[in-house]
């Protein structure tokens, strides 16, 4: 039975970060505006690359890997911008530092949760390997073992990962503080905060999509409004609308999972289970071979996809961590340096 359509998460309230670029206050030189425009145009290009070619491409592990790779690039871009602004940490306002440190610790928590979930799903691969091994010998005893392994896979994938709760809390914390601190008398600070706003919004969207995929629910999807004055606003809106609409449609149709590779394994398990349950006497050897082979291929695709995604999540974790460590090191040393990886 299909579940009722889950309500859309309301648009999240936030202050207008673009008032800081009004004529009042610090003058923005052509050089600073050029730096900002370059950053935002690059951000728009990275978002456009994430637009799925079609509905079937939404939440493939390959797409999720590309999304995490894009976050790595975007967070590297903002470090490059900080260097180009020639804005040493000693000139940072305490509010900017608080924003950066608060955001980074939440992102690290989110990465830990995602890493935990990819590892948990990867562990389920052992059950599927046992199925293939046991069905290589179509004896009654081996059928019992294969059925036990299939049951183990079902129970494993149906279980919940408590670390995802930490991820949800971190995402909510990021969403509640999308508004930026008011910047006075610092043109470079205004550019920095506007760039960080863009990074934060795109990161939050990707994390909410991952959370929806891993949690088995569309409740954690976020619909974020972005002022049209952003050069990346249109690309962001197109991506958010397309992906969120498809995920909500999948869940409303009764799907247990929206991860394409995981769904392929589940389909293979459902087809194979009745044959294993009925016993060796009623199973046609050719059908058993075909279904077992198909499940093995789907399981391998899932395992390889999770491995590659886990590497990207770890890379993003390291980028966030090194940026945070660099800022803290500069603060301890008196704040004379730039926010660069060491």
From TrEMBL:
Cell location: Membrane
Lineage: Eukaryota, Viridiplantae, Streptophyta, Embryophyta, Tracheophyta
Pfam families (alphabetical): ROH1-like
Protein name: Uncharacterized protein
Membrane protein topology class: Single-pass membrane protein
Originating species: Rehmannia glutinosa (Chinese foxglove)
Chief location category: membrane
Superkingdom field: Eukaryota
Similarity annotation: Belongs to the ROH1 family.
UniProtKB keywords: Membrane, Transmembrane, Transmembrane helix
TM region positions: 191-214
